[in-house]
Amino acid sequence: xxxxxxxxxxxxxxxxxxxxxxxxxxxxAVAMTFSKLEWEPNDIAVVxxxxxxxxxxxxxxxxxxxxxxxxALTFATxxxxxxxxxxxxxxxGDGDALAIGGNHFIHACRRNLNMxxxxxxxxxxxxxxxxxxxxxxTGFISTTTPYGNTEPHFNTVELAKAAGATYVARETVxxxxxxxxxxxxxxxxxxxxxxxxxxxxxINLGRRNKLKHPIPMLDWINQQTIPIxxxxxxxxxxxxxxxxxxEFVHRHRPDYFEVYENKVxxxxxxx
Amino acid sequence: xxxxxxxxxxxxxxxxxxxxxxxAAYPITPQTQVVEKLSEIVANGELDAEFIKVESxxxxxxxxxxxxxxGARAFTATSAQGLLLMxxxxxxxxxxRLPIVMANINRALAPGWxxxxxxxxxxxxxxxxxxxxxxxxxxxxxxxxxIAYKVAEQLSLPVMVILDxxxxxxxxxxxxxxxxxxxxxxxxxxxxxxKLDVNNPHAFGGLTAPNIYMEFQYNHHNAMLKAKELINxxxxxxxxxxxxxxxxxxxxxxxxxxxxxxxxGTLARTSNIVVDSYREKGIKLGNLRVRTFxxxxxxxxxxALKKAKKVFVVDRNLSYGHSGIFFEETKASLYNSDxxxxxxxxxxxxxxxxxxxxxxxxxVEHGIKSEKPENDVIWMGVQK
Lengths: 271, 384
Description:
The structure holds 2 protein chains of 2 kinds.
Chain A: H1 23-36, E1 44-48, H2 56-59, E2 63-66, H3 72-82, E3 87-93, H4 94-100, H5 102-111, E4 116-121, H6 156-163, E5 167-172, H7 176-188, E6 193-198, H8 214-224, E7 225-227, H9 228-231, H10 236-239, E8 243-250, H11 256-268
Parallel strand pairs in A: 1-2, 1-3, 3-4, 4-6, 5-6, 7-8
Antiparallel strand pairs in A: 5-8
Chain B: E1 2-6, H1 7-17, E2 22-25, H2 32-43, E3 50-53, H3 57-69, E4 74-79, H4 80-95, E5 101-106, H5 120-123, E6 131-134, H6 138-155, E7 159-164, E8 172-176, H7 180-186, H8 210-242, E9 249-252, E10 259-263, H9 267-280, E11 285-290, E12 292-294, H10 298-305, E13 310-315, H11 325-334, E14 343-347, H12 357-369, E15 378-379
Parallel strand pairs in B: 2-3, 2-4, 4-5, 5-7, 6-7, 10-11, 10-13, 13-14, 14-15
Antiparallel strand pairs in B: 1-8, 6-12, 9-11
């Protein structure tokens, strides 16, 4: 049993999420990963933006920064640049990472700064009560799409891959063991690592789509889940609206600091 | 027809009755119901408009600008951090002279994170060149939106209709919803003189060298000055049709008052209760509500205050290192007049702390007892 309690800031409890919300499980998985890697709380900075995922930084007994909507990565960039030896972990939701902060997301992937990002994708703007997000499945009802979402949705993994992230994985809240595995690899990775976790918002997404209890919503996520090995034999049409899970990218590319040291500092010194 | 509406739905219905054609918005607490209701109205086919769920508030204002430049009546709504994110394009909208109307729900700013009301978000947009109207009840919220388009489109100036978070946005009040046919008589379709038109091309936002830039600002400022007159004129014209008249200021028992509270938003309604209780005691207290903050109605404020002995400005906002902002503006605008009375500036209710009749009474007592204000900021209700 891993001792992860030292990563929890108990004085800020109880946590704010709805009963049955998947964020609690992700919260625990990240704390367990910190414990497994034996990172000291003081060596970690947890940075978050706005939304249900944004609240996470408050409950970690680490250094924490609860920033503005969509900008968690930019604040985190400053933290990492001034403390390159510390661990910077960013939490964002689908709204935070892909809507208002989409630009920062692709640039963080491109820059390959050595930070870890956990994208908690519950497919909806949950905290404001259930408005359509860039990952809301087509056809789903939200408070701003009363007859179903007509817009196509983002694929976080494909976006991160295309933008140059050097570690990319996706898991769901139904697969805690697999999630722990990819979190550990992501956190150990040198470079920008993205782990998307598909989470359940039965309250503000499920409720309007016949999935108003946690179990049916988790079942629905399970039905949509396809392991990466199986997905290889499936067509694009068959994979539409599916959550392909597993590790998509794990490669080495010089991270921001390495490039800066070799291409700028050494040149400036005439080495 | 009389309906019981929350402030946010009063906004949605005001926009619908104004027959807005393009809505671009991003949800933020406490504005969310505005976009939810409008998306329902548009999806149901009750309003012939395009609604785009954009990816940020910056995009919401930018899309509104594009729509207005193309000749459509554009609408958006936001609050707090969302309004701050719009800041760059708020300037763009007014300098391009596009008559966009938006609603802003006054919410305090972060950090620390908060969702409750104060006015620092909208007052931070003081110099963006927008007309700012502060409403004090849900009826006024709805009516102001309709009047806002009428004023905006005549002067080619954008208008922000502003209301307090939760105290109005989420509070249900009886609201008379005007008939569409009556609104149509008051507010004609938007037909701008300049717009993006393939058959008659125009350019917006081109490079403006020092030989001409200043003239645009001169014209913009003069249009703002004209707005003072037009807000009163259209507020009266509205009153003739609908029986509810609006202006730059709203006087409550100020004509014979020795002491006058100067307030805005819902603070004014609380203050009116206090005025009545003082009147019962035979003390001549009045309340001057400033509804139009930009342009600043200097002349009307002077007229309302000129017979008073003391003025007590109540600010739910603060310019750090100086004073409350309505206080600062009032004092500065009267400096060159012949008015020589003490003006007190009280700062209270920040971040949604309740401002009760008891607190306003404390303010009045403090003001009556003191000969002159001891500071530019007199804090009320703060834990020291």
